[in-house]
Design goal:
Helix 1 packs parallel to helix 12 and helix 9 packs parallel to helix 16. It contains 16 helices and eleven strands. Strand 2, helix 3 and strand 3 form a beta-alpha-beta unit. The strands form two sheets. It has a six-stranded parallel β-sheet, with helices on both faces. It has two domains: 141 residues, Glycogen Phosphorylase B (Rossmann fold); 177 residues, 3-Layer(aba) Sandwich (Rossmann fold), CATH 3.40.50.2000. 42% of the residues are buried. With 334 residues, it is an alpha/beta fold.
């Protein structure tokens, strides 16, 4: 029986990318492989209902030196009491170097442990993430490992929320919603309102979002009658279950889109400044990903001078409601 520790401490989407390692390890070493994760407290709840993961070590303050970090010391202590066979580190930040060095494991892979040689075919962040464990598993296993997440069962979510047999999810906010500058990944509020109105005439619409986003969601209200408001009402494990059982999910470039693609739920992603082929929801042989873009000449421009100097956010404004609605109806998602 192999014992493996994985370090991935990014945002939710980053952790979803890294979940491809879980089934890869199980396929390579057997279902009895013990897999522990080190992740940020919020993102780590991704594994609350995932029986494939044995334990999650929370690491809130990544930059604090080991001597002052009780959480880092706990991870190191546990590894010394019961050493790991394999450590796989996904983090390049120098703040992880000492942690990687002090964890007790027979073999270590990834940054600060072993040089990572990236294939020229690795374009999407999922593919880049997979390079961290390429030397751990066979080429056959590597080729068929994809992100996968596990949440609450269909029975659990239907017993708790008034969901209809068929519904579509609208996830209109993103992680930049509360920043005090232009949200370059955002679609216009009036467009979201019109889309919700039109879809609700065909199918139940479920609205999801995070807590502390009342100011944003109040601008989309009042909702039509056939809308279920689940904003800030679902813990992550239940949100995963809600997404898994939906007909489809509509979002901008944000964490819920990555969850949908990892759950093989059809996803319609409204993409403007970000490079969809790098950070958009990941296409696999088992899911349906629709990238909806206005295809501006200046896109993608994320984190470049072009974006910083943009005052109009035309790449998102030029995505019309008709474009999104027609993509959904043409795919027969409703």
């Amino acid at each position: 029986m192999k014992r493996v520790l994985i370090i991935r401490c990014g945002a939710l989407g980053d952790l979803v990318y890294a979940t491809s390692v879980i089934d890869a390890l199980k396929m390579e070493f057997g279902d009895d492989t013990v897999i522990d994760f080190v992740s940020t407290p919020g993102s780590g709840t991704l594994f609350q209902k995932d029986s494939r993961v044995n334990r999650v070590y929370p690491l809130k303050h990544k930059k604090i030196p080991i001597i002052f970090s009780k959480q880092k010391r706990e991870i190191i202590k546990a590894s010394k009491q019961l050493p790991y066979d394999i450590l796989i580190n996904f983090e390049f930040g120098k703040q992880f170097k000492s942690l990687v060095e002090q964890i007790n494991a027979k073999e270590k892979f990834g940054p600060h442990a072993k040089e990572v040689k990236f294939s020229t075919d690795a374009v999407h962040m999922v593919e880049v993430s997979k390079e961290m464990f390429k030397d751990v598993v066979s080429s056959e296993v590597f080729a068929k490992s994809f992100p996968k997440v596990v949440g609450s069962s269909k029975e659990e979510i239907y017993s708790k929320y008034p969901l209809e047999d068929q519904y579509i999810i609208i996830s209109p906010s993103n992680s930049h919603q509360q920043r005090n500058r232009m949200n370059y990944r955002a679609w216009q509020n009036e467009s979201w309102r019109e889309l919700i109105e039109r879809l609700s005439k065909k199918i139940q619409v479920v609205i999801i979002g995070n807590k502390n986003e009342d100011e944003f969601f109040n601008k989309l209200k009042p909702y039509p009658l056939n809308v279920l408001d689940l904003v800030a009402k679902t813990p992550l494990s239940e949100l995963i279950g809600v997404i898994e059982n939906a007909k489809a999910l509509v979002a901008t470039d944000t964490g819920t889109a990555h969850l949908a693609s990892a759950l093989n739920t059809e996803v319609f992603a409204l993409i403007g400044p970000t490079p969809a082929e790098v950070t958009g929801p990941y296409q696999t042989p088992y899911n349906k990903v629709h990238i909806i873009s206005s295809n501006q000449e200046c896109s993608p421009c994320y984190k470049t001078e072009v974006m910083w100097n943009c005052k109009d956010n035309i790449c998102m404004k030029e995505i019309s409601v008709d474009m999104v609605y027609n993509a959904i109806t043409n795919s027969q998602a409703i």
